[in-house]
Records
---
Amino acid sequence: MKRSLPDTDTVKTVIDTVLAEAAAHGRRPTVTAIERHLDIPHATFHRHYANLIDAYFRPRIPNPALLTPTREPSGSEARARANLSRLRKENADLRRTLALYEEAIRQLALENDALRGGGAVVALPHRPAAGPPTSA
């Protein structure tokens, strides 16, 4: 049994509704939202209403730069942003620490190879701790 499809005017009305809802929430309107409103599968919608998508829907999609949320971020969004910022900082710190450990392991591997190969490890002179220069 085939289900009857909505007429063009009904689809245009739903497209206008989806565009208005997206603008109200500061989001980009999608064809998927239209399909959900109409309860039509994507393939069926595209097969029967492709001309409306190209001629009626896409020209009315606002520029993404003009989409701005009309509401203030909630407490959970603010916490999520703060958490994301903290995680990014921790990630950068861990990458720096990892780079230091990689260099230390590389130097130890070179020293180990030199010792096992019978080469001599040259001890570098010990530098005094940094401080004010002493006059002799």
Note: The chain has a mean pLDDT of 83.
---
Amino acid sequence: MPLRLVASTADASPPPPPPNFDKVATGSRGHGISLLHGWLPPTVEIAALVLVLVVIGWRTRRRLLVLPAMALVLVSSLIVLNQWVGYFPTVQIAWKAINAAPLPQQTSLASLSSLRGKSPETGKVVPIQTPDTASGMFHRTEYVYLPPAWFTGATPPKLPVVMMIGGEFATPDDWIRIGNILPALDTYATKHDGWAPILVFVDTGGTFTNDTECVNGPRDNVATHLTQDVPPYVEKTFGTATSADQWAVTGWSMGGTCAIDLAVMHPEQFGTFIDIAGDIGPNTGNKDQTIQRLYGGNAQQRAAFDPRTVMTAHGPYTGMTGLLYAFTPAGPYGKWTGGRTPGGATDEHTFLSGKSSNTIKLDSAAALYTTATKAGIAATLYSSRGNHTWQAASGAFGSALPWLFDHLHTATAAP
């Protein structure tokens, strides 16, 4: 049976994504010297090639040029790697990230009381030091976005919350600095009299390279941190809503895997999830490598954090909604309604059989979607053209944002 991808019709499902996430996101990056397109990347690559050729061809005084050539080759390689993942869209953003410059619209927790009743035109980003009381997890500074509506009245309204999770190599502020989602948040708030959910940007690793997949194990107790440290602190500090239908979790790549995993494992906390290009389940290699690296050799622990296993064991869910996105560079796009995906995978043993990463992602999303719908979750799966980059991730979130926020607004207004 061929893959069936059809254009979405107007229903309760999220709106269909644009044909190409990469192109949509690229045009909204602001000013600066691009590290993804334009003149700089090819200029550095050509300069590196020329200098290497000079070093190879110049028999005398070659050593005077070796170090500069090596440095330029390294810079060129980093630029190519960056183009592959889209981590730093501009030189300016890269410089600010490297130097830990304040985020746009950042203010301190202590200054919030002075802003109450003043109805700021844009939301505010607040660094928070979340306790590690339950998890003992070492983590970096996390962040909260407060929409203008939070500052109205004598006390903050009980706004819904969206937990935001980044990719494997990440910092907690990536959705803000790299994903550039603040303009979309403020635009939505402006159109809704300042109303928008609170967003909390969490840490999942403690360091840039610690791939935890949001599980509890040798790499830290991340699942406990995200479910027992963060929500109580956010609810108490910012007076947010507390019910599951007013808490959502969103992530991309590793974060997408985390999003669906956290939701199906903790339906009492999260009623909605968005999985953007996540995997079939937490993994750091093949099955044996994953069991050893993430769970210290405990296969039962792996099963406890496998989303399909969890959904099947849980049985019918009530009131949970999920959205999954998969990217493909040139394949069909639209809503997936069943049938075989391009890779034809039907179980996890065929997922890593030499197929392209985007085919694997679509196979993974299809398998998760199938299990989720069987378990009573109101799930939707879209495939869209794009690559596995931050630009595609922010484009996907921007596409889903109005639906997600309207969905939470409805839950907030319900008696």
Note: Confidence is low (pLDDT under 50) at residues 1-11, 24-30, 343-355.
---
Amino acid sequence: MRESRHRRLTRSASDRILGGVFGGMGKYFHISPNILRVIYAILTILTAVMPGIIIYLILLIIIPPDPAHPGIMGIFQAFNDFNRQINQDNHHSQSRRQLKNVEEKDIKRNRRS
């Protein structure tokens, strides 16, 4: 019972053909991912292919990757975190300078001032 409470639907990193969507769904519902793939392929062919592709892309975006194996998206996330850290460090080191003991002088331009 404890396992079902903490179980999350994620894309599979180990059982994948394209994005791991059906591998993750098979693991979540305790069904063979190959059965889900065959059913999805049949439904996609029967519904003129395009809606099936759109639904798969939506599932690919909505379902998060496996946290233990984030794959290529994990590399992008790590790179993004690294860049954010560098930018914060640069922002703190490049603070504004304050000038002290400054004299102001009027500059005469074209001898009219």
Note: The helical segments are 2-5, 21-29, 33-46, 50-62, 71-93.
